[in-house]
């Protein structure tokens, strides 16, 4: 049987850092005696494929110290997790691996805070050293959780994102080879949501404060010549609108546009999961 590309890790908050008005970095480390980031208990060490590498995190319910997971975490973990009482089992959410470091083993996730509305945002806004989570994180760098894959022969890259996809954009800009032409548009709620995005690319990053429209900004732009590769992520309707413009009036080939709704206004991630299963 093929080796799994993702495994579960028990982690705790080591520290937090405020990156902007809405973005908080949570740095995770292993829990003593748990299945640690460094591979305690026979688990492989957590790694990241970089770019927009995704992972699942499991939050404790109110009143729990640590998330409740199935006793057996094998390839059938998802069915086992679904069989648990939704009011008791760990709350599953999808996030981006912002960074992984060794000696000591640490993993960063940048959370866009959107108030008290969702359990992940609520948890992250109060996160403190010692708080526990579980991660389902990659243990091989070549895994199915990286979407940003510009094909050979790509001449330039277009990125569109909101706050939730800023960590992925940061990872993409770090990963792309020096000199790659990039045009990026990022929609935020407030100018204080902007962060530095270090890169060796020839990147032109435009920050838009809502209600300014991403799709309108892209539509008004002069785009470089050559073969494009577009990557769009953020609120689902925003992403759809930009994609429609790119594959419509701009005539981008459909396979050259990678788009992902990171969340949908008015819908929890649990409800989105129910829809898709
Ligand atoms: C592949 C992938 C990678 C992602 N990476 C990141 C990441 O690195 N950082 C990050 O912050 N998010 C990321 N997200 C988005 C994150 O998973 C969602 O925002 C998620 O819904 C947050 O969970 P919650 O428990 O806070 O809210 P939920 O319980 O899922 O939702 C509660 C309510 O809040 C609304 N809502 C959810 N997110 C937002 C938001 N950002 N602003 C305003 N309202 C919102 C929902 O529409 C719903 O009405 C990623 C999503 C995907 C699919």
Produce a short descriptive summary.
This protein is of the alpha/beta class and 277 residues long. Helices cover 19% and strands 32% of the residues.
| DSSP helical segment count | 6
Text of the CATH class of the largest domain: Mainly Beta
Cofactors, ions, other ligands: flavin-adenine dinucleotide
The count of β-strands is 12
The averaged pLDDT comes out at: 94
Q: What fold name stands as the CATH topology of the largest domain?
A: Elongation Factor Tu (Ef-tu), domain 3
Helix content: 10-25%
Name of the CATH architecture of the largest domain: Beta Barrel
Unreliably modeled segments: none
Query: Strand content of the residues, in percent?
Result: 25-35%
User: What is the molecular shape?
Assistant: globular
Q: Give me the side-by-side strand order of the main sheet.
A: 4-3-7-1-2-6-5
Give the radius of gyration. 19 Å
Structural class: alpha/beta
CATH superfamily of the largest domain: Translation factors
Topology as H/E string?
EEEHEEEHEEHEEHEHEH
Largest sheet, if any?
A: 7 strands, antiparallel
Compute the separation of the termini in Å. 25 Å
Integer tally of domains: 2
